[in-house]
Design goal:
- The protein has 237 residues and is mostly helical.
- It folds into two domains: 5-93 and 106-206, RNA polymerase sigma factor, region 2, helix turn helix motif (Rna Polymerase Sigma Factor, Chain: A, Orthogonal Bundle); 211-237.
- Helix content is 73%, strand content 0%.
- Helix 3 packs across helix 4 (69-90).
- The chain is globular and about 50 Å long.
Length: 237
């Protein structure tokens, strides 16, 4: 089965929204990790990730270069994270102080423990500069290779490797271990891609002509070939 971005995008633009599910599967974990690095809340990061893919599908016909799809996704995610952060700064959530232990039920206690773990994780991540935090999340949580992170962020692989090395030196070994366990528990639900595809089926995106839908480089090559054929036909006449 072909899984190149351009091929899948052409399928989507030709009224096959199921093909978008393969794009979601390719990039959802990386986008989720990137969003969490920005906003440091798993539920909000999941919501942002869902919004990113739905917006991307709705505006897929506006993407001029299909080979830049993944960079485009991350730019959408970055904007959405900034908007969410600004919104939360304007309307902060009130924190409820200590509750009496006798009114806490078992599910609440479990939730409280999970919150403590997440708070410890956030404190560790906040101790890192934002660029280090992003590559740590994309590598450890998103499972992305150094070359993939470099391409996505538009930096060299050497820079990504250096940032990861510095970040690891600043985080205690037990914290790295806790990060791995936490990330396993906070993975996107198995139904995530299905939900995106079902939402995509309800969205009517503007189709593009076969010529317009070609990637930029291929469109140029096709245009040149057509000019050559026109010259040849004119010569024969």
């Amino acid at each position: 089965m072909r899984t190149e971005d351009g091929y899948l995008i052409s399928k989507c633009l030709n009224d096959e929204p199921e093909a978008f599910g393969l794009l979601v599967d390719k990039y959802k974990t990386g986008i989720y990790a990137f969003a969490y690095a920005k906003i440091q809340d798993f539920q909000d990061a999941q919501d942002v990730t869902q919004e990113v893919f739905i917006q991307a599908y709705r505006n897929l016909h506006n993407l001029r270069r299909w080979d830049s799809f993944v960079s485009w996704l991350y730019s959408i995610a970055s904007v959405k994270c900034r908007k969410l952060i600004r919104k939360e700064l304007r309307h902060p959530v009130e924190f409820i102080e200590d509750q009496s232990p006798d009114i806490l039920e078992s599910p609440s206690l479990e939730s409280y423990r999970e919150n403590l773990v997440e708070e410890s994780l956030n404190e560790a991540l906040e101790s890192l500069p934002e660029n280090y935090r992003e590559v740590v999340m994309m590598h450890y949580f998103g499972g992305m290779r150094i070359t993939e992170i470099a391409k996505t962020l538009g930096i060299s692989s050497r820079t990504v490797d250096r940032w990861l090395s510095i970040a690891r030196s600043q985080l205690r070994e037990e914290m790295l271990s806790m990060m791995n366990e936490t990330f396993k528990e906070q993975k996107l639900p198995t139904s995530f891609t299905f939900r995106i595809v079902e939402a995509a089926k309800r969205i009517k995106i503007q189709p593009v002509s076969q010529m317009k839908g070609l990637p930029w480089g291929l469109s140029m090559a096709t245009g040149l070939l057509m000019e050559v054929f026109q010259v040849l036909n004119h010569t024969e006449m």
